Amino acid sequence: MELLYEGKAKKVYSTDNPDELMVEYKDDATAFNGVKRGTIVSKGIVNNKVSAHFFKLLEENGVATHFIRLLSGREMLVKRVEIVPVEVIVRNYSAGSIAKRLGLDEGIKFPFPVIEYSYKSDELGDPMINDDHIRALGLATDAEMAAIRGMALKVNEVLSNYLLHKDIILADFKLEFGRYHGEVILADEISPDTCRFWDKNTMEKLDKDRFRRDLGGVEEAYNEILKRLTGESVL
Q1: What ranges do the domains of the chain cover?
Q2: What backbone torsions phi and psi does residue 144 show, to the nearest 5 degrees?
Q3: How is domain 82-217 classified at the CATH fold level?
Q4: pTM, rounded to two decimals
Q5: Which residues does the UniProt record annotate as the domain SAICAR synthetase/ADE2 N-terminal (predicted)?
């Protein structure tokens, strides 16, 4: 297999099937657009298995994804998509950048899901954009963005309700989408790297914020998410 791309969290390889790729999840961790770097032991295993778990759940609820099957603890087989260069952020609670930008305390529940878009560009630091920017730059068609918004809200509904039964609050999360044979489908990953997970009873952070903010217990938090979702443990 040929290495096609290596990002901050994953490696992507070609396969014998031109419509399929293999994704390998790494233990490397970055924050603040790569300014902070480190390693989270077994993160790759957790993110691979958690993402697969969520993709299967979403497929069962009518959301098309790039996921095909798990290949190993760190590897999954996915459909080869053309990534839409628009990252979608869905926010149920104030946290992170929106709290800083708008002067909000962390943990305020919004009356409805707030959707934001950013331009997928490491060089530019993934700047925020709106529908007009997307249209003017030709990043996606109006029909594609309508489908993406609808899928993002559906993902939020399915995962939020599911996670509450696991005593987890889905505070916010980032999604990426790709074009596959003329259809826009969910791609990338859904994991403690891309979501803010809070314990419903204690509000303890169970995600990458523990790494970003030097809170300690990072591996334990990632493992707790995997354990609550699948019953498995990597520690």
Answers
A1: 3-79, 82-217
A2: -65, -40
A3: D-amino Acid Aminotransferase; Chain A, domain 1 (3.30.470)
A4: 0.96
A5: 3-228
